[in-house]
Amino acid sequence: MYYIGYDIGSSSVKAAIVEAETGKKVIVLNEPQNEMEILSIHPDWAEQDPEIWWQHICTATKRAIKEANVDASKIQGIGISYQMHGLVIVDEAGNALRNSIIWCDSRAVEIGNKAFAEIGEEKCMSHLLNSPGNFTASKLKWVKENEPAVYNKIAKYMLPGDYIALKLTDEVTTTKNGLSEGMLWDYKENKVADWLLEYYGIDTKLTPKIVENFTNQGVVTEKASKESGLPAGIPIVYRAGDQPNNALSLNVLNPGEVAATGGTSGVFYAVSEMSSGKSTRVNNFVHVNYELETPRVGKLLNINGAGIQYRWLRNNMGNESYEAMNEKASNIEIGSEGVVVIPFGNGAERMFNNKTIGTHFLNLNLNIHNSAHLFRASLEGIAFSFVYGMECLKEDNATINVIRAGNDNLFRSEIFSNTVATLIGYEIEIYNTTGAVGAARAVGLKDGDYSKFGANVSDNDHVMTFLPLHNKEPYEAAYKKWKQELELILTNK
User: Fold this and answer.
1) Contacts of 386 (CB under 8 A, 6+ apart)
2) Among candidate residues 127, 142, 216, 144, the one with its CA nearest the CA of residue 180
3) What angle is formed at CA 279 by the lines to CA 199 and CA 160, rounded to 5 degrees?
4) Whole-angstrom Cα distance, residue 460 to residue 203?
5) Separation of alpha carbons 215 and 211, rounded Å
6) Contact 264/163 with Cβ under 8 angstroms?
7) Which of 87, 110, 127, 308 lies at a C-alpha separation of 20 to 30 Å from 104?
8) pLDDT of residue 348
9) What residues contact 463, with CB distance under 8 A and at least 6 apart?
10) Signed CA dihedral, 399, 400, 401, 404: sign only
11) What's the first-to-final CA gap in the chain, in angstroms?
């Protein structure tokens, strides 16, 4: 018997089939082979046609079943992970009324800022644990203000994963964790934040029915079965945004456990017991195992300028492999002989209260420094930004015991991983897993056996553990210098 999981990103859709009993990966693949298009008709806009996601789901499913040579009738359930914060709106027939306004679209920033100022910080932070910000609710308000003819046809709003669930089951539903990603969950009242919708002048009837995770959320219809190749009648059991799902994939479920991501951007996602948010630099979301008796929230700290910095160097300095760059960097001493890289050249940074810092190369001596110094300084600069982010998390009452990370871009670098582990003083466990695999395995959590789930992750995926190094003084000196340079830049912004 098998489970299937999907991870609907903005660049591709990934599908994974795992063995139901052991959680062992059978196949993981993605569609399309190149990246999906993001439409940006204005500089701060980002949209995708949600129907494209469905088409790629269907293609990926048929490919996975064929290439893994599994009997489709033995697939017993579905898990869905998806890009967070997006908005999909549909009419009474379930048809999308416009392109999805996706996570990296920032057209609604001012709408959210105004709401935060007018509703008040105390209410927003105690009830939403966040500012309304540039999230789904604010994007829906943008549609109401700017596309009233479209708004008037809306039957329901939803998040990207909810739309795929609709295509599979012909039912419009959402989850508490999905609503929390959109700033539409009131933690204090344990219900939809209708007061925010009312403030925005949005009909509260547009909110879908809420379904619980790890239960039957609806079953695959005959029509969806024909289009996707999945058996009719099997249930969707699980649904979560990509960062909470990444945490689940890494067995990050309890307070003190932290999931780290080191891709184009960087993320720390720390599971905590519920408390009011203190900082608008950190976002709080309902975690996948949230229960009223044990309210688990994920504190998300995002670093926009992370792996993109290293990729930019690679693309513009001879296109060497990352392995070759890492090897050159390893020949340079800790601290990069004075070179400092501030790696925030990927737009506004939330942990600096949405300031745009930019990338800075500092203290270059043209007589002694070369590309190896830049490689090392970039890896250190990105690692230092993670350390700075950890300080922000601790200010927001996060507890830290262990960090788990996927075996992806940055964490493959010993310089990066050793620097982070040594400065924050915690082990970093590395796992070879993906969001689609985690979503597939989550189907098995119908039984509520989190310890068995965690054991399967450890047995199948653990690669290695980075321990804090004993000689941390040179790392601390380099971080202190980096932070001083950063604070000078922040002072002038």
Assistant:
1) 260, 262, 266, 268, 303, 306, 420, 424
2) 127
3) 55
4) 47
5) 8
6) no
7) 127
8) 78
9) 407, 430, 431, 432
10) positive
11) 57
Q: Other C-beta atoms within 10 Å of 321: how many?
A: 9
Give me the residues of the chain with pLDDT under 50, please: none
Q: Which two tokens stand for residue 185?
A: 């969950």
- Would you state the pLDDT for residue 276? 60
- pLDDT tens digits for range 50-95: 999 999 999 999 999 999 999 999 999 999 999 999 999 999 999 9
Q: What is the pLDDT of residue 328?
A: 96
> Amino acid letter at 182?
G
Matching residue, tokens 């300031």 = 355
| Span 341-355, pLDDT tens digits | 999 998 878 899 878
- State how far the alpha carbon of 252 is from the alpha carbons of 161, 297, 306, in Å: 21, 11, 22
**Tokens at residue 167, please?**
């295509």
Q: Please, which residues have CB within 8 angstroms of residue 83's CB and are 6 or more apart in sequence? A: 8, 9, 10, 102, 103, 160, 241, 242
Pairwise CA distance, residues 175 & 157, whole Å: 13
Each residue of 337-347: b (16+ CB within 10 Å) or e? Answer: eebbbbbbbbb
Contacts of residue 327, defined as CB under 8 A and 6 or more positions apart, other chains included, come to: none
The pLDDT of residue 277 is 62
Tokens 């004075």 belong to residue: 338
Backbone angles phi, psi at 103, to 5 degrees: -55, -40
Q: What is the phi/psi pair of residue 132, to 5°?
A: -55, -30
Q: What is the pLDDT of residue 355?
A: 83
Place of tokens 């929230």: 297
Nearest one of 491, 480, 492, 493 to 340, comparing CA atoms: 480
SS3 256: strand
Q: 3-class DSSP state for residue 401?
A: strand
Amino acid at 8: I
What tokens appear for 196 in the block? 């925010």
Torsion of CA 353, 355, 358, 364, to 10 degrees: -70
Which amino acid, 159? Answer: L
Six token digits for residue 191: 């219900």
Q: How far apart are CA 203 and CA 273, in angstroms?
A: 32
**CA nearest to 346, candidates 385, 375, 315, 309:** 309
